[in-house]
Amino acid sequence: MKRKICLVEDDRDLREALCLMLQYTENYQVISAFQNAEEALQGIPLLQPDAVLMDINLPGENGIECVRKLKWQFPKLLFMMCTSFEEDEVIFESLKAGASGYILKTDGPAKIIKALDELFDGGSPMTSSIARKVVASFSRVTAGNKALQELTPREREILDSLARGKMNKEVAADMDISVGTVRKHIQHIYEKLHVNTRVEAVNLYLKR
After folding, report:
1. Please, what is the end-to-end C-alpha distance for the chain in angstroms?
2. What is the pTM of this model?
3. Per-residue pLDDT tens digits for 2-44
4. What residues does CATH 1.10.10.10 cover in the chain?
5. In CATH, which superfamily holds the domain spanning 3-133?
6. How far is residue 184 from each of residues 83, 85, 172, 177, 196, measured CA to CA in Å?
7. In the chain, how long is the greatest CA-to-CA distance?
8. Which tens digit of pLDDT belongs to each residue from 98-121?
9. Contact, 80 vs 10, CB < 8 A?
10. How many angstroms from the chain centroid is the CA of residue 65?
């Protein structure tokens, strides 16, 4: 039995090309193709496909939000992003929303079909350049977590206060220490985390 696939793609030529490509495969059939998220949010719950190929840059609501809403309704439904975006933030927002795979439109028909095969085999297919970004990000997070563990309890307390938007004077008052002492602690935090600004330190702390 062929797997049922839905497409969400606003480019008509590409949408038709993907439909045609999948219709000639042994394992897949396209049961519907949508040009925007609004249509997909109405149609996909009714059709209940096995997987969805989702573009990101859609008119109106974007593909990431569409995945997030549908994944909440149908946790077992598989989503694979098929897009032209390679930015780190977009990749991770897609994965956080519930996508199990992330491939690029430039990968070509053979790779897209192979990615679908991998998706249904329980994998998380990704274009090689996307996979490298994911691995690099995990490496940065691991290094950041290790650095955060080297902070003293007092330094972690101060960093937590900075993350909540408190100024040096407020931190000093809360901890009953001088502003100068707070500044010294912050400088030690910068050195241990290998950052130069409060924003960098807080971002690393929040992404831990």
Report:
1. 44
2. 0.65
3. 999 999 999 999 999 999 999 889 899 999 999 999 999 999 9
4. 150-206
5. Response regulator (3.40.50.2300)
6. 47, 42, 12, 11, 14
7. 73
8. 999 999 888 888 889 999 999 999
9. no
10. 11
